[in-house]
Fold this sequence. Notes:
By secondary structure, the protein is of the alpha+beta class. The protein has two domains: 23-53 and 115-443, no CATH class; 458-604, no CATH class. The protein is built from 23 helices and twelve strands. The strands form five sheets. Strands 7-10-12-11 form a four-stranded mixed β-sheet. A two-stranded antiparallel sheet has the order 1-6. α1 packs antiparallel against α6, α10 packs across α11 and α21 (528-539) packs antiparallel against α23. The chain is elongated and about 85 Å long. Residues 80-383 form the DUF6311 domain.
Amino acid sequence: MPSSPSLATGPAPASPPRTVRDRRADLIVTLVALALAVWVTSGLWRDPNVRTITVNSSDQALFEWLLAFGGHAVTHGENPLFTYLINVPDGVNLAVNTTITVYAVVFAPLTYLIGPPATFLVILTLNLLATALAWYWLLSRHLVRSHLAAAVGALFIAYSPGMVSHANAHLNWTAGWLVPLLIWRLFALRRPGHWLRDGMILGVLIAVAFSIAAEGLFFTALALGVFVAIWALHPANRGEARAALPNFLRGLGVTAVVAGVLLSYPLWLHFAGPQRFHGTGFDPVIHSEDIAAFAAFPRRSLAGEVGLGTSLAPNPTEENSFFGIPLLVLTVVCFVALWRRADPGRRAILWALGVLAVIFTVLSFGPVAKIDGRRTDLPMPFDLLGQLPVVNAALPARLALVVAPVIGVLLAYTLDQLRAAPPRHRSAELAWSVGFVVALLPLLPTPLLTDEREPIPRFITSGTWREYVSPDGVLTPLPLTVDIYPDGQRWQAYALSHRQGEFAIPGGFFLGPGGPDGRGRIGPVPRTLSALMDQAGRTGMVPIVTDGTIREVQSDLRHWRIETVVLADQVHGAKLAVDEEALRRTGTALFGEPQRVDDVWLWRIPPADR
């Protein structure tokens, strides 16, 4: 804090009005948040139609397809929550997938104007920026007085290791701006006399959140439920909680009715519609947080850049904790310092935040504990909770994402307290400054890794495909479309967003039925043709083809009603190289000699075989 001016230097210039200082601080935070958002996504901005996220190109292709399909469905009067354009002939229930319907509709004009890849990049960048600004607004306007404190807390939350990790193509999880809005509107229900309006606003917000990030909404609801219960049961707050309870419950009732009406069809599809399933296609043991991961550094950070990152996450998109030891130590020190100087009301908040962080940390460990990559036999609470409906569809590792906002709020509270009453000794002030720098600087994010992706063939971009596929007919690329071979959905997204018309594809990247014990699985159940092409593309070896093989493949062609089979010169394989020559030779063994059309090899399937 600056000292008072001496008489020798004259009086200090008048401070600008508070509103001017607030706007100046808001502008600075906005610029910093925007710079960080562009910095993290900078690899894609070089050319969004050519670049792809290295570690998760399959999810990027999926979200680009969702943007193209959602916009097409709405503008053509089709169902945005169920489609037969992929996974022919069964279709896909998108209500049990990540539909991002709100984004698809709102950004449909942009998708038609600049294409799905560029729209994907715009939304990803805006998600990061909006998350920082929403948290900054909540902290600075409702929780702390210092704009610096609010900025540090908000920027940490928005660019925490988990958020940067999910910036590897997850448009749902990077929509963290929804969380502070949900918190704000939930606590607004306490206001007397406004329960009807506030309940309606929260109901609409919940419907929007469900349509963008249903799993994130579920985690937020769980976290807020735990926080409110612990806060209300604290002796310091029981009187206030009892007084606010009637109004709060009336508002929640209105919220439930409004959200229930708006989400009635999506919820019916989710729980009772066709192609539904229970559970998920992911193993909760694999997708759980390693205990050691909380003290580790993420790969896309300054610490990771100098070699301190680890591979304790199941994949680079799931580094949901990875706070590092310095930040964990700083968090504990902040909690203790705040607790020592807190009044009973503030202690109730701190107690609720602390318990919340511990609960979600333990739950993120999944069914059994893992320590430094080694699975133990120690059962965890999620082993029981994971059997419950809805909970069994969640990935336990992602529960750790709740911890980052708790840490961000504690950092903001501490800085706010330090700004209001600075330490009496410069050594203490220096120690706090060094502590924040040492804890946060190693976590400064670095840009996402990107690569060039294989271009969409001219056969698709020129519209030539329409000469070989009947209206609403079925085309398939080789290999058939699944998560690791996303070309089919990339081509379809291009055709839909450029108003070329529709063609359907077998398979696709989606969650659907067919897993063990009635659970979900990623993509369709494999058939002979898809298995043969996968084997050829992976190994570079042509499978042995017999008369029996031919009959099974012809059965697959009839099942899928395939009219045209297409092999591009360059096939995009997520996480693996694809041998196009082996695919061509395998296709020739199964379908005969192909014809060359534009820049693809093409086989037309006779009506008798389909």
